[in-house]
Design a protein that fits this description.
The chain has 31 helices and no strands.
Length: about 425
């Protein structure tokens, strides 16, 4: 019996087949078929998949399209003889793919190391030694191309001391900002950048994961709203007590609301916040998953915007969600439909909601049962059907039904559910 994947492999749309080529569940048989697809985009995606069988790699090496060869050379474990075929290539893209290949040999490295066109690709190749990486990095910082300096500052795993010193002494804002984004910095390097005069550099440091108590304290008196906002938003602070003080910085309203929304804040220590007349403040308190449950009943009396925040809160009790699911405002019902704690029964009830946004969010919900998703697979609204195609709970029988959907956007998501972008609510409850 044919699966929905088998059917999509022969879909008339190249975009659908290209999406399928990205699917992690493909068999070797289907990979072989897609490697021979008439459209170069499909073959290129196959070529970029990790650990392709050797016979497929060999087949793709004969491809006439440069874009396919680029992907193949960049990603696959080719023999030294195969890699050498491309050293003299006139194509810059091919050369850069060769320099990026993680399986590149020492012999190949020696042959391309002097090519300035590939230096900013070769320098990040995990196959090269630290000594060679330092030589390449020195060549990059002696160049006039600032974008290469920025990339080096952000991506280099181990920054040599003399290069670090050069970056710090020159104090180029863009380069220092890139340095601040480098995940491999030690605490001393982080502290140096935390004292940089540029707000944008300090903001990058304030957004780093696992920010130490020392850096938190350093930033607690910062005068920049951007820095304090990133600090208030950071959910991995080693000293979360700083959030209480940030919640009192009323001269910066966005800092206040972000700190109140942060799940690390101990809201119990500021009970007076419930008396706030600012609806935006109350919304951010209401959406915080660390909110004391006894506060919810008080917040339900604060208006529909606050109710929407409560409906979106993943810790809101089922009883409250059931009450909000009957609200006359569809914007409130959408929050219940998106809540990860909504039960199957509750989602089934909302699946017949007259508002398409509610039905869409039901179809997005990872708690949505198969029978409800099957019901929504024939919904008149395109976005609802796309959400069904992207939901991992959707049954194989429903997926086969969706292979016949007239809109290719549904089939594209069906071919690879990872392509579906589930709605993420960031700033507004």
């Amino acid at each position: 019996m044919k699966t929905f994947i088998d059917i999509l492999a022969k879909d008339k749309s190249a975009e659908v087949r290209a999406s399928l080529a990205e699917n992690d569940e493909l068999s070797e048989e289907l990979l072989t078929i897609l490697a021979e697809d008439k459209h170069k985009i499909v073959r290129g995606i196959v070529a970029s998949r990790p650990d392709l069988p050797k016979y497929i790699v060999d087949k793709l090496l004969d491809d006439k399209e440069e874009s396919v060869l680029e992907k193949l050379i960049e990603k696959q474990k080719l023999s030294e003889a195969q890699l050498e075929l491309f050293i003299q290539s006139k194509s810059l893209s091919i050369k850069r793919s060769l320099a990026s290949n993680p399986y590149i040999t020492k012999k190949i490295i020696e042959k391309i190391i002097d090519d300035n066109h590939v230096v900013n690709y070769l320098v990040f190749n995990p196959s090269i030694s630290k000594d060679i990486q330092t030589i390449l990095a020195d060549r990059i910082i002696s160049s006039e191309y600032e974008f290469m300096h920025e990339e080096l500052a952000e991506k280099l795993v181990s920054i040599p001391k003399h290069i670090w010193k050069k970056f710090i002494d020159e104090n180029n804002e863009n380069v220092c900002r890139s340095l601040a984004s480098n995940p491999n910095l030690n605490e001393t390097e982080i502290e140096i950048l935390a004292k940089n005069k540029s707000d944008s550099v300090r903001s990058r440091i304030a957004s780093r994961k696992n920010l130490s108590k020392k850096i938190c304290k350093l930033f607690s008196t910062d005068s920049s709203e951007d820095v304090l906002y990133e600090l208030a938003k950071n959910t991995s602070l080693e000293d979360s007590s700083i959030l209480i003080s940030l919640a009192k910085r009323t001269e910066f309203p966005y800092v206040v609301t972000m700190s109140l929304r942060n799940p690390q804040i101990d809201l119990v220590k500021i009970p007076s916040i419930l008396d706030s007349k600012d609806e935006d403040v109350l919304c951010h308190v209401a959406i915080n998953p660390s909110i004391p449950l006894k506060w919810i009943n008080s917040l339900l009396l604060k208006g529909d915007f606050v109710k929407r925040a409560i409906g979106r809160n993943p810790t809101t009790p089922i009883k409250t969600l059931l009450e909000l699911s009957c609200h006359q405002d569809a914007n409130v019902r959408t929050t219940v439909a998106s809540n990860i704690n909504s039960t199957s029964d509750l989602l089934e009830k909302l699946s017949d909601d007259p508002n398409e946004s509610v039905r869409f969010l039901v179809a997005c919900n990872q708690n949505c049962p198969m029978n409800v998703l099957d019901h929504l697979s024939t919904d008149e609204d395109l976005l609802v059907r796309q959400a069904v195609a992207g939901n991992l709970n959707t049954s194989d029988s429903t997926r086969i039904k969706l292979t016949k959907d007239k809109n290719k956007d549904v089939r594209i998501i069906l071919a690879n559910p990872k392509r579906f972008e589930f709605p993420i609510f960031v700033d507004n409850p």
